Amino acid sequence: MEILAITAIVLLLIYLYRKMRKTYSVFETLKIPGPKPVWILGNIHEFKDEDKLSMFKVWRKQYGDVYG
């Protein structure tokens, strides 16, 4: 039973990883600039010290009007 649970967890992690890679590869394919996300957390770690609006202003200044 333990091996089944471990296998299910590993398969779930592989599925999530592939889904995220596919989602974010769209930005790379279309050559849309933007901050690189962390595997599961995305860019949430960049908001810890600043409010969201100021971080979006920084990204707009850095990447232009269109970023992903």
UniProtKB/TrEMBL annotation:
Transmembrane segments: none
Top-rank lineage group of the source organism: Eukaryota
GO molecular function terms noted in the UniProt entry: heme binding; iron ion binding; monooxygenase activity; oxidoreductase activity, acting on paired donors, with incorporation or reduction of molecular oxygen
UniProt cross-references to SUPFAM superfamilies, sorted A to Z: Cytochrome P450
Protein name as catalogued: Cytochrome P450
Taxonomic source organism: Mytilus galloprovincialis
